[in-house]
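In response to a reviewer's request, we include the raw inputs and outputs for one of the modeled complexes. The two entities were modeled together in a single run.
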Amino acid sequence: MNALTAPRRYFEDLAVGETVALGSVTVTREMIFEWAREFDPLPFHLDEEAARKSLLGGLASSGWQTGALTLRMLGDRFLNGIASAGGLGFSDLKWKRPCMANDTISATGTIASLRRSAHHPDRGIMVVDLVVINQKGEEVMTMSLANLVEARAERGA
Amino acid sequence: MTRWYEDIVLDEPFLLGSHSFTEEEIVRFGKLYDPQYFHVDAEAAKAGPFGGLVASGWHTVAVGHRKMVDAMDAEADRLRDLGQKPGVAGPSPGVNKAEFKLPVRPGDTITYDFLVKDKRPSNSLPGWGVLISIISGANQRGELVYRAEIASFTKLRDYRMPFALKAALALSKLPGLGWMARRR
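The model returned the following C-alpha cells for the whole complex.
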C-alpha cells in the first residue's frame, strides 16, 4: 500500500463476474502507420497496396497494436482504479478478425478468477477476460490477462 | 518466418538481437498504452510494487516482435543473395501464453531469442502452414524476463490448389459475388 493506491479498491474489494465497459477507440490509418513503423514494419501494415493483396485484404492494425489500445482502455477504466501491482502475462490471445483502418473497437473486461498469490502474501492474482469488438459487433480480439493486485490483509492474517 | 513452410527446421534457435530500454521510451510507451503509475511516473513508482519505474510488459513484447520482423527481413535478404526466393509470412492468429517473469527497468538490455517449436499445414487456410514459435527475452544478467508462445501463418512452397478451390477463388474475385463471399 502506498499514498497513490491507498484510496483505490483492493484485492478483497473485487468479485468474480464483475464486468467493466472499457470504452472505445477509432483506429486511424495514421495510428496504424505510426505503430507499424516502430514495432511491426511488415508491408501489410505499412502499405495499402500490399495490404490489399495480403491475407488481411486491406490496411489493418498490427495485432499487438490492437492489444496495446485495449490495454490503454483497461488502464483508464479499470486498472487505475484498483491497487494494481503489475501484469503477470496473458493467455489464449486470439486475433479473430483484423482491425481495419477506421474501425472503432470497444472492449469489455470481466473478472474471471481471483486467487491469492503463492509468492507474495500481500497480493492476489486477478484474471481478466477481455473481449474486443468492432463497430459491427464482430469479435476482433479476445484474451485473458493475469494481473497482481495488492491485498489489504496478508494471506492467513 | 521468411522461409517456406517446408524449409523451417524445428527447435533451431535464432538470435534476434538486443534492445536497451531507456527511461524516456518506457514512459512514452506507458503514457500511450499502459498508463499505470509504475510505467509512467519514476517518482511515484519508487513507492510501488517494483521499487521504481518498469517497462510495460506489452512494450517488452512489442519490441521483441519488431526484432523478429527485422530478423525475417535479414533472412529474406540472405536467401535473395543466395539466388533463392524467400518464403511468405502471414499474420498471426494468436498467442497461446505469454509470461512476464521479471521487470524490465530503465537501462536494461534485453536480448531476444526465437525458435519454431511445432508446425503443421493449416486446416482453415489452404496453402498455408501454422507455426508455433517461442520468443523469449533475457536481461544483461542472463535472467529470463519474458517468454511467449505464438502461432503464425507461413506459406507452403509446394502447394497445388485443388481445382474446385481454384474455381471458387476465381468466382470470388468477380465483382458482387466476391463481395458477398468475402463479407461473411
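As requested, we also summarize the result in words. Chain B has one domain: 5-158. Strands of chain B lie at 14-20, 94-100, 109-121, 128-138, 144-155.
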